[in-house]
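In this supplementary section we document a worked example of the pipeline. Step one takes a protein sequence of length 161 as its only input; no multiple sequence alignment statistics are reported here. Step two produces a three-dimensional model, which step three serialises into structure tokens for compact storage. The input and output of this example are shown verbatim.
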Amino acid sequence: MAIIEAISSKANLKRIINYVTQDKKTNINLVAGKDCLAESCSEEMQYIKNLYHKNNGRQYIHIIQSFDPKDNLKPNQVHNAGLDLANTFTGFQVLVATHIDKSHLHNHLIVNSVSFENGYKIQMSKKDLQYLKDYSDKLCLEIGASVIPKKENTQYIKKRI
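The serialised model returned by step three reads:
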């Protein structure tokens, strides 16, 4: 089952990219860019920020998609699920790095905060995050991974007596 986390970080873009692409955590076949090249994604993302004069504030969104070791997935299955998840960020560059250094395989998605299409900054609401989680669940089912059962929306009624 995949768990999605949105991480808030103060690290600069180059530093987080260096972290998620470390040789001791992944390998070159498990690092890819969406709308950018993995090898030069830091420079490409920074170019977009400079182009639209958006160098302040949030520089990226960091999403972690972690899989249960019991699902016995292969690294390329997890990586492809991460690439599919990255495609939900239309108009934004995304670096996907699959880590294989822990018992649980997991993807790091680094999303540029500035759109290359129009220069707008990314907005992630709770609804957007829920969509991301639901889409990740769909991807899990497609590759044979388990998903966390959804809770029923139960309405509680208070009675005043």
